[in-house]
Specification:
This protein has a six-stranded antiparallel beta sheet with strand order 1-2-3-4-6-5, sandwiched between helices. It is an alpha+beta fold and 171 residues long.
């Protein structure tokens, strides 16, 4: 996987045109939205950093997750990841590398499998939520382990090998 590079959204100079475009796209998809929802989506896009490489497009957003009057605000980073070819296939190691490139090697991120009432499933897109560097989630392993051998019966692909999609071509 190649390194991610900063990219730009192809937004119109007019906020109104962009909001209208979002409303029209939702309508065309058979999921009409109201004007305020279109504005919220547009603000989210406008406040995102966009990165791309040969395989992925990643939007990075930062969200304040505590009360506005909090002395030390909790800022959670949100990585919205999708493949350029729009396929649903993914590779955990690629996502780890994306997280490392954009947020840092010692930042922890999670992928949430939400309650059905909070599910967002509109595209082959994946979401990682990351704490600030130095903070850890109160879940997971306490120490790392990397196994490059298959001597314990587990099958692990080599660390320098790309995965292939269902057609057998490299992805």
């Amino acid at each position: 996987m190649k390194a991610l590079k900063k990219a730009n959204y192809n937004l119109s100079p007019s906020d109104v045109d962009n909001i209208n475009h979002i409303e029209q796209c939702a309508k065309d998809a058979g999921k009409p939205i109201d004007r305020e929802t279109a504005r919220t989506i547009y603000r989210s896009i406008k406040n995102s950093e966009l990165y791309t490489n040969d395989k992925y497009q990643v939007a990075l957003r930062r969200h304040r997750m505590d009360a506005p009057e909090a002395e030390n605000p909790l800022i959670v980073s949100h990585l919205s990841i999708k493949r350029i070819d729009k396929k649903a296939q993914r590779d955990w190691r690629d996502f780890q590398e994306i997280k490392n490139q954009l947020l840092g090697k010692e930042v922890e991120a999670v992928e949430l499998y939400p309650a059905e009432s909070r599910k967002v499933d509109a595209a082959n897109q994946y979401h990682l939520w990351a704490l600030p560097e130095g903070q850890q989630w109160p879940i997971g392993f306490t120490e790392g382990l990397i196994n490059e051998d298959s001597n314990n019966g587990a099958i692990q692909r080599p660390f320098n090998e790309e995965i292939s999609d269902e057609t057998g071509s490299e992805s």
